[in-house]
Amino acid sequence: MASKKELPNSLWAKWILEAADKAADKNPQASKTYSRASRSIKNYSVKLNHPNDALALNGVGPKVVKIITEKLKQWCTQQNAEFPHQVVFFLFSIKPLGEENKSQKKSASVKIGKSIATKKRTIEAQPSGSDFKKVKRWKPNRRDAAWGILVAMRSLYGIESASRYICKDTIIKCAEKYCDYSYSAPHGNSTNRTQWHSGKLLRHRLISLHEAQRPRKYFLTDTGFKLSTSLATEESIPNLESASQDFMQRVQADAPSPFKAALDDRFNTETNQPTVQPSPCGNLVPSIVDNVQPKVWKAGSYTIELILDNREVSSATDRDGLFKHCRSTLQKSQGGQCKAHQRALAVGDALWIAVHKETGKEVVLDSIVERKRIDDLCSSITDSRFHEQKARLKNSGLKDCIYLIESSQSRANSEKFEQQKIRTSKAELMVLNNCHLHITNHWKQSAEYLAMRTGVLQEIHQNMDLALIPDDYIERSTYLPLLSALRKRHPNEYWVVSYEVFDSLNDKSANLTVKDIWARMIYRINGMSVEKVSEFVTRWPTPRLFWDEFHNQENYKNATSSTAKKNLAEWLEEQLTCDGENRRKQLGASLSKKISDLYSHRNYHHPNH
Predict the structure, then answer these.
(1) Residue 502 to residue 515: CA distance in whole angstroms
(2) pLDDT tens digits for 140-155?
(3) What is the DSSP string of 117-147?
(4) Which one, 197, 255, 543, 594, has the greatest CB density within 10 A?
(5) What is the sign of the dihedral through the CA atoms of 472, 474, 475 and 478?
């Protein structure tokens, strides 16, 4: 048996044994676990420096490490010693005491690093004295999903006109010939996971990344470019070397980081004039329109399907009633030709899609429905969701926006809500927002209306071709101008985008810009209306622009005096006074004073702010 001085970790083992004794009565299983950990630590022949180092031993987990850490901190305080630092990437051999003479002398090498607190990683090595086994660089199996994606992206990088950023559909179309699986159909027992899911593995390994903008476009990192080049060489793709040089030159010269470009646009734009500067996107749209080559879906090659938002309910006690009634009505009226599905929609409560009969690809048709019960309509007017929802419908790019209002005739509703508000909102929808308005008396009538509308669209599209805009040409910043320009130049074409791109473009949170968040911040100031906020963020698109201009005023330096505060408020009021235009967009003296006081305070403890 080893002597006491040969046990370098006996103090730690003693602390864990004490914890085992305390837990013996209340939790015998925990006591047994602590005892096993104590023996493992005690018999370990190498001095452990940091508590996390013990994670490599059998029977030692995070709870044991936590106990050792607390006890070690107390011991260091009593001994006036410094708490030990963890050794990063320190390699040592596990050799318990008393096992030197066993026949099997194979040992395990353990890598202790920053990640050891979450998991332990064991690398088997040869017997003592030999070199450690090197970790292999990851490489996908031949013709699996990740292989196909990498080879496709590398081959697309060799095209002269290719961009560094490639959309999903383009990658899939090229990757299918290098992979034995389908990227669109579910694989194995999964009902919704396709082989495109392997893209997450590539992003996890920092081989392929995607932009923060919507719709997502993907690009290869330096590591991914090298790996994909070796895979493409095995696939005998020609001219890789020359294509690599040409592409990297284009990347360095013409394709700055999208994140840097976005930040430059946000913070370096000169907008000190009251008028709106022309958007740079407006100059790009004509050139994009000239290059767009739509994919035409011939009439009869697709079917029409209704998509209902899965959060739409008929009542609090019947969550599926609306969908079931709509589906049953469709089956009776259309004989099963039209289908209905439920999904989480990014915008609207119902819309219609066209599904290609051969490929199964989905595109969004030009009709969308926002369903409102009368009580929900009134509450949305009160909390301003009404205006936000109308704006999101407009930004969707769909021409046929329908407001479906379920109006109850009960006396309770008549007494609870002001009828004038309801009438005003209905008139505003039709006159100002160019929306169609349809009123029903019950949710069943709403379901029947959606089914009827589905049948009408089915008849309309029997002899209509669809012009699908390729995903490569779509970005959030140019989407609406591009769609408008295409409709003007080719009015006889029915322009559509894929469902996936539409859902990505209209995601509620993913597309928020600095200007959007800034507008929400300003809107929280009491007295700011939608019109005032719109004019304010047009004048100052970012907080930084407003902050710099406001703080550069001479009166700001003396903002503690009443005269300086008054001058700041007057200056702010003048900035949004545009030649006697619509007064609803002007701040006024009282609101200007409130905003100027807010941004000239040295602290914000005042209850009114």
Answers:
(1) 22
(2) 888 888 888 888 888 8
(3) GT---EEE-PSTTSPPPPPPPP-PPTTSHHH
(4) 594
(5) positive
Closest to 364 (Cα-Cα) out of 349, 377, 354:
354
CA separation, residue 227 to residues 139, 168, 344 (Å) = 8, 20, 37
3 state DSSP class of 405 = strand
Q: In 520-561, where do the E strands start and end?
A: none
Return the pLDDT at 409. Answer: 54
d(CA 316, CA 313) in angstroms, rounded, equals: 7
Count of CB atoms within 10 A of residue 489's CB? Answer: 12
Please name each of the domains of the chain with its CATH number: 4-124 (1.10.150.110), 145-261 (1.10.10.10), 296-505 (3.40.50.10130), 514-600 (1.10.150)
What is the tens place of the pLDDT at every residue in 557-605?
Answer: 665 667 777 788 888 888 877 555 566 778 888 888 888 888 877 665 5
Dihedral sign of CA atoms 456, 458, 459, 460 in order:
positive
Euclidean distance between the first and final Cα of the chain, in Å?
Answer: 74
Contact between 555 and 564 under an 8 Å Cβ cutoff? The reply is yes
Question: Can you list the alpha helix ranges (DSSP code H) found in 24-144?
Answer: 28-42, 62-79
The tokens of 333 are what?
């009226």
3-state secondary structure of 15: helix
Q: In this predicted model, what pLDDT tens digit does every residue of 500-539 receive, in sequence order? A: 889 888 887 766 778 888 998 888 888 888 888 888 898 8
* Helix 62-79 vs helix 10-23: crossing angle, to nearest 10: 120
Question: Which residues, in sequence order, are bridge partners of residue 122?
Answer: 110
Per-residue pLDDT tens digits for 373-385? 887 887 777 777 7
Contacts with 581 (C-beta within 8 Å, 6 or more apart), sequence order: none
- When computed from its CA atoms, the radius of gyration of the chain, rounded to whole angstroms, is 33
Q: Which residue's entry shows tokens 């749209």?
A: 285
Cis peptide leading into 286, omega within 30 of 0?
Answer: no
Buried-exposed string 5-22: b where 16+ CB fall within 10 A, e elsewhere: eebebeebbebbbebbee
Which pLDDT value is given to residue 336? 64
